[in-house]
Amino acid sequence: MKYNFLFLFVLLLNMNCSKKSDKVIDNPQLGHILIEADPSFKSVVSALQESYMNLNPKTTIDFVTKKEDLCFLDLLKNKARVVVMSRELSKEERAAYDSQVGLKWEPAKFAGDAVIFVVPKSSSRTSISYQEIRKELDSEDKNIVFDGTNSSNLNFVAQKFSKKPADLKFSIISGTTNLVHQLEKYPDKIGAISLNAISRPYGSDAEKLRALIKVLPVVKDGKSYNPSLNNIKDMEYPFTRILYFLTNEPYYGLGNGFIRFSCTQLGQLVVEKEGLQPYNTYKREVQMR
Length: 289
Description:
Elements: H1 2-22, E1 31-37, H2 42-55, E2 59-65, H3 68-76, E3 82-85, H4 91-100, E4 108-120, E5 128-129, H5 130-136, E6 144-146, H6 152-160, E7 171-172, H7 176-182, E8 190-194, H8 204-210, E9 213-215, E10 218-220, E11 223-225, H9 229-233, E12 240-247, H10 254-263, H11 265-273, E13 277-278
Parallel strand pairs: 1-2, 1-3, 5-10, 6-7, 6-8
Antiparallel strand pairs: 3-12, 4-8, 4-9, 4-12, 4-13, 10-11
Helix pairs in contact: 10-11
């Protein structure tokens, strides 16, 4: 009996050790995770993803685009490790995050973006006022066109006016690229898209979209504001928004490693090259010899 008990104890110990060794926890230099973001932020997130994996070749970061609301739900369900958000969460969403994720609320801000209003190059319109946008979103004419329901652009503009998306009147043309290409057919319509969709200075896709549209300055309180980086940095452009990461990762793994990279100097240089405003700015020091 003594030997049988000892054999059973050793067997159970070996099984437990085997289970522990089979479970590989990722770290910032090794592992495989999924990141999700709204299609509006595809360009900047893709650039950060590519840069991080180039620096850490033993990592695999899959990036999937989904509507912003669905990204947040996937984070709560542990289907995605990291998501990008642009609007403030409601009290109910914050409560759901606190209860289901169980981590301290720490949004990692990494870029200044904006919702911009565009018309075809052929349009005679040269600007749009803040009040006009508000008025149009209450009009049955539905002259403001968004890239989809539950999209980050629609959610953010609705929140800006302290309303729910369902309370607004608007048109839909699915997808930013499709919206820009179709806008010429609707001369009275005004597209609402993300700055990041056209901000990459030398990106071929962004260049093609820029060639088709005019970006309208937004007039508010008698002043006209373009979505320039200076106006975004100073939060003066009325529809400036800050992009931030949320994670459900309770340890310093690949998800938090990617977030830290994106918020530090190298990641912020990537954000800048994407034509967005880095959230964390750094002084450039030059050593003279």
